[in-house]
Every structure is written in C-alpha cells, then in structure tokens.
Design goal:
binds cobalt (II) ion, 250 residues, alpha+beta, binds 2-amino-4-trifluoromethylsulfanyl-butyric acid
Length: 250
Amino acid sequence: MPIMIKTPQEIEKMRRSGQIVREVLEHVRKLVKPGATTQDLENGAAEKIRELGAKPAFKGYRGYPCVLCTSVNEEVVHGIPSTNRVLRDGDIVSIDTGVIIDGYYGDSAITVAVGEKLAPKTKRLLEVTQASLQRGIEAIKPGATLGDVGAAVQETVEANGFSVVREFVGHGIGTRLHEDPQVPNYGMRGQGQKLREGMVLAIEPMVNAGKPDVQVLSDGWTAVTQDGSLSAHFEHTVAVTAEGAVVLTQ
Ligand code: MF3
Ligand code: CO
C-alpha cells in the first residue's frame, strides 16, 4: 500500500483522536497501584473511551480481546488484561491503547512504575526508553529518513546498555491503525524512506534491559523477553509538518 499523505484538516482530526488517547492513558495511569489487576486498568479505559465518545481501536483487531494492552515486567507488548494479574510494588506495566473517532485513529503507550519500590536500573530503563522516543521524534522533519529516526532511537538505547526489540516496529497511522510505512526502532542514518510533510507515524520503541530477543506466549499475543529481562515501551502518534514533528498524542 502507498503511504497515505494527510491534509492539515485530516491531521486536525487525528489530533482529536490523539488527545482522547492521551486522556485515556492519563486516567489509567492513576489506576496503577499495588493490588490493582490489569483488568481494573482495562475496565477504567473502556469506560473512559466510551465517555469520550470514541471507539477502541484494538478490541477486535485481528481478534484481540481488549481495549488495552497491559504488559508487565518481562512482557514486551500485547499483554492481555486479566483479573488474575495483580500488580505488585516494584513492577512496571506498559499500557498501550488506541481509539478511532470520526474515522481517524490515534495510538500511544506509556510504561508506569507500580508503587514506590522501583529498582534504580528499572527507573533508568523507563527514562531511557522515553528519551529514545523523544530522540526519534526530534529526528523527524521533511527530507529526513526513517533510518535517521531508527538510528536516533537505537543510539540512545544502546549508549545506555539496553537493547532494541527488532520483531515489532512502529507504523503509519490514519484511517487504519496500521498503515505503511513500517517504522523500525533501529537503522542507519540516511537510509530508508524519506519523510514528507503530511505523513503520520506511530513511533514506538520497545526496549529490553537484557538481550533484544522476544518470544510470543501460547496465548498467541503476549510477547516476552527470551532472557526474562524487563522491557519498557513508549509510543506517540506524530505528524510530519514543514516545521518538524508535531506530537498528536500529547
Ligand atoms: N500499539 C500497538 C500497535 O500499534 C498495539 C496493537 S495491539 C492490537 O501495533 F491488539 F491491536 F494488535
Ligand atoms: Co502502535
């Protein structure tokens, strides 16, 4: 499929979906505490999305059962909310959600510490992953390449001794949740697709404290680190404009 270029009017609509995604994530962030289950987060998100007049983007997507992905500790992405998964002090949980409103999608993720007992290295993992997303966003402008974006993310991660997941990538987004191009979180400067004004991309680094390898559990969704190390995930939906990147999900 070709890369879909958005008009300023379409980008305004995507700003609206992006703002709803942000509101949902900020609501769910407040529900994260020791003793809460990932299903509690799911229920809070589903209610909020409804309240805001949007539709969940993930539920029913390729048969995915929920409005959130909740990935705890060594879970990388696509963890399925469950009443059996109780959050403990010192855990980390990544919360990923998307919505559609007025025909346009928004997609964003955060990783949150549970309680107060976060190990220093875990805190560092969260900071570096968020910083790598920020560096990737800063590399965006018309004429830059996807390799510039991937390299910026990868360098930030690896300079801090962590590793970038290769099996999952970011994506174009618009009237579909996943559009071309794919947006890897690694790459070489000057290589790959050139960015153009009107492209909208979901940038979503997944960063492991240990080795980059992942595997998918028998539920068909939950991706975990092969070495059991912790993993973090941050994501924004970003428009390419003449002035550079505009983050639609903040
Ligand atoms: N942010 C992820 C993505 O863009 C989440 C998709 S979960 C799914 O791929 F259930 F919708 F597949
Ligand atoms: Co995404």
